[in-house]
Amino acid sequence: MEFIDLSAQRKRLGVDLDSAILAVLEGGHYILGPEVAELELALANRTSARHAITCASGTDALMLVLMAWGISAGDAVLVPAFTFAATAEVVSLLGATPVFVDVDPVNYNLDPLSVARTATKIAEGPLRPAAVIAVDLFGQPADYGAIATTARHFDMRVLSDAAQSFGASRSGVSTGAMGVPAATSFFPAKPLGCYGDGGAVFTDDDELAAIVRSLRVHGQGDDKYDNVRVGINSRLDTVQAAVLLAKLRIFNEEVAQRQLIANRYGELLRGVAEVPVTDPGTVSAWAQYTIKLNNRDQAAVALRKAGIPSAVYYPKALSEQVAFLSCPTDPAGLPVSAELGKRVLSLPMHPYLSVQDQERVAAVLLEASVSA
Ligand SMILES: *Cc1c(COP(=O)(O)O)cnc(C)c1O
Questions:
Q1: Closest residue CA from atom 1 of ligand 1
Q2: For the whole model, what pTM was predicted?
Q3: Going by C-beta distance under 8 Å and a sequence separation of 6 or more, which residues neighbour residue 124?
Q4: Residues of 143-159 as b/e, b for ≥16 C-beta within 10 angstroms?
Q5: Which end of the chain has fewer CB atoms < 10 Å from its terminal CB, N or C?
Q6: Mean per-residue pLDDT for 133-145?
């Protein structure tokens, strides 16, 4: 059993994918070729965002937006403590200060009360609360309405880290079009993944879009040899765009399949573990299916012995990682992030997971819970 079975998808796409890649090789436009423009249109259509701007990774997508906003030394950027390192790393790379806030114990997304408490405290000191990055953890969109209300009160910008949630929606609105700029990732294991690194920025703001387009090509003005700002090299290569276009054609079906698999896990694991809960009106992209267990480590060992892969996303709050030990946190502490680190376990999740495999996972977890 695979944790994420990319080879099943590869088999399904077969020669379509081969010929798409071959066409790029023959076409000779390896960086920002015609497939990249085609993909950007398709991504904008899929999400209803006004602009989709591809780039070299999800990490770069986050950083490009912060760069466009001029986030720099003296700025505090509030980020959840329970997320992947990239969310906070981009803040530090720009010389600004990541400030860790806690998450909600049910949906694992940013807790607006923690944001308000922390921004109030930061505003009393030397740093300016400049922005907040909300993460759509495990594929479920954060509540951008509530977060934007809190952020407005402190005059903070909001960025969506949608690296795990491409394909999700809240109240019928797709990830990428939730009223704030969003950054997604096309890392192979994400819901829509390519065969290398890739990412995209989504925004409805024409000016922001133009700046991000400039920043990703060395701060170009009229052309590459006209430099109007300091930028970076962060372009999507054309082969990856061709791969993503081929995968987009089956993507809606795959998202629906992930939902069926999540529903089935929910039934199979009732009474065995705390299963994920989605907010009313949200459709998750199910990047991960993450349960909570009191005997998490024993359960992981039992699964491993049965040949079933699992993973702990994330074992530690980012505030406890060596790289971020000196960063400020919510003055009330980060109890939810700390507890989740001890109890979460992510199970195999991909659109091609069989009923039999899901039943095996559930049987092993049931036995581990009985013997605990
Ligand atoms: C994967 C991920 C990123 C980074 O994306 P890359 O494409 O790997 O750079 C950022 N934030 C979160 C929450 C992620 O899961």
A1: 163
A2: 0.98
A3: none
A4: bbebbbebbeebebbbb
A5: C
A6: 97
